[in-house]
Amino acid sequence: MIRKFIKLSTLEIFDAMHQWRDGKLWVDEEKDGQSTEKHLEGIAYIKSVLEKGQKIRPILVRDNEDGTYTRLDGFKRCIAHLEAGEEFIEAFVCTKDEYDRSQVFPYGNHEIRAWHGGQEKEHFGLFEGDEKEDFNYDEVIFLYKSPNHFGLRIEVCENIQVHWGDYGRYRLSMGRRDFEELAKAVSSIENG
Question: Quick check: 83 and 48 in contact, CB under 8 A?
């Protein structure tokens, strides 16, 4: 399994339980266990998180080996990315062989299974590294923040994140040492 960004246009998001019918979301509520309304609420919440520039856990997909991918887990995250106008989504990508063997991969203190629903809600929260979905955006420490939502901002969260573009849709995450090296390099260019 590898972790990478994939184009949403190459992803098969819908399945037998989640479909787009007559211009609106349809969910097989009996098989899924959640109502369509709960899905819509979840999508709206995730979209609001994305618009704040917060990094969320990658989805899980299978590589179809023809340039396309099939979603295994993360339906609401996919739709929220689409509605937020994102072109890419971060994903854990498993091969056909890993999927056929239902291979298990370590992730945090738990495991991800290369199978449908492989990121069990009991184990993983929405925010990567946070098993509780209680992230408070107001508690982020900003090292720099431009006056509008189109500009640059640098924040300290679970690591240091540099965001730019509309609503911070482009981001670079790094550890403190990497950030310090980047700051030194930029400073030497500006001063040299």
Answer: no
Q: Which CATH architecture has domain 2-136?
A: Alpha-Beta Complex (3.90)
3-class secondary structure, 192? coil
Compute φ and ψ for 10, nearest 5 degrees.
-100, 5
Instruction: Please state, in angstroms and rounded to a whole number, the distance separating the CA atoms of residues 7 and 28.
Output: 26
Least confident stretch, 28-37, 49-58, 122-131, 133-142: 133-142
Lowest mean pLDDT among 17-21, 114-118, 153-157: 153-157
Separation of alpha carbons 178 and 121, rounded Å: 32
Residue 56's SS3 state is coil
| Beta strand segments in 76-140, E | 88-94, 104-107, 110-113
Q: What does the domain layout of the chain look like in residue ranges?
A: 2-136, 140-192
Parallel/antiparallel/unpaired status of strands 104-107 and 153-156: unpaired
Per-residue model confidence as pLDDT tens digits over 68-91: 999 999 999 999 999 999 999 999
Q: How far apart are CA 119 and CA 29, in angstroms?
A: 20
* pLDDT for residue 133: 46
